[in-house]
Amino acid sequence: MQSPLFEEESAEAVAWIAQQMHIRRLGAGEILWNQGDVVTEFQMVLEGELHYRRDDDPYAQFIVGTAGHPTGVLPFSRMKKATGRVWAVVPTRLAAMEASHLRELVYRAPLVAQRLVAQMTDRTREITRMEEGSSRLLALGKLAAGLAHELNNPASAAVRSSALLRDVLSRRRKAGVALHGVVFPDGVRETMTEMIQALEECLSTPGDMDALERADIESDTTDWLEDNGLPAALASELVEARVTVEQLKPLAAAVPVEPLANFLRLIVADHQTLCLTRELEEASRRISELVQAVKQYSYMDQSPVAEVDVEQGIDLTLRMFQHQLKHGFTVNRKLCGNLPRVQANGSALNQIWTNLIDNAIDAMEGMPADQPKILTVRTCLEAEGILVEIGDNGPGIPAEVQSRIFDPFFTTKGVGKGTGLGLDIVRRIVRSHRATILVNSEPGRTVFQVRLPLTPA
Question: Is 99 found in the same domain as 151?
Fold first, then answer.
């Protein structure tokens, strides 16, 4: 049994370990444990290779055992059940010992026991690192999906407006070419120029008109255009541009029908150009705001620790969840508004708000459609720090599991919906800032309270 694990250990201790072990063989692809199986053995990989993967996260996979390395239950380990699936990727041979012998192994082979404890620490660190990354990616995936929807709307509007603008400019060019060389009476040309210069951007209704009044004006404009041999199809656009029949009557008396029709086409195209450029500006501004919000949320291009506006971070986090919160949720904001800045890692604090808000949304997802879903976010200044409360009116956390919700890998969500590390990450970030976190939960009300100290961490 050649392994660094047994170096410098006494021959008697190694012989005793060998006596307690039996050989197990696995074919390529054969499963050693399924997720949730009770693990009762300490094992040494003699040859071959074992891989680990969680059923609810198929992308999180790593090597858990190669020749000369231990696996399974280790001394002082609290593991009772397999946290993931373990299988042989090639034909593998194991030496296995019942976990009941581990207590005696600690006394008979202390050097082996020390190395096994170090192996357990490394294994825990590796699994935790993998699960933390998976948890962060899961949260990032949710935010990215929402942001994709939020970005899609202004991006689609920009594409649509650009295509329409190209068509409008083409029609305006044709109308302008048709008017080239046309001689208008002196007073008429000035009037036409003033009408173009007076054009304004689109409004939902011209002036203070309601929909019924606008429909009447469009009908009268259509009748007047038809009576004067002008394109009746321009009526709606002329009303939108706030060009009235009273303005057109003097032109109709002084300008032939065809040049006047082309002038009307030109004025409609100019107005539509104003409207479309405004839409492009709004869409671009919205995209820029979302990108800026993402940069601020992640504290991109900023030092890890700096003076942080807690309420701004909460507001940015809520904006990241804007798409999810649109569908049946009410956000009850009770922000203080004048909190002092704290010396902290802004990105890490935003991760706290992200996990707590995400959990609150998940908790309310299964509520009846006729029941309001209320997310409450409150901040206030206390004697020694800042209090942040994030609550929901969901079904609550069962009393029997409330003491375990911050434990690594513990989750009340279904398979594939959570890694059980969100609140563990929250707790560790809270501790790193010398802050505290408490939870109060009962049916219909769950509130997480985070208290941040004002003095630098």
Answer: no
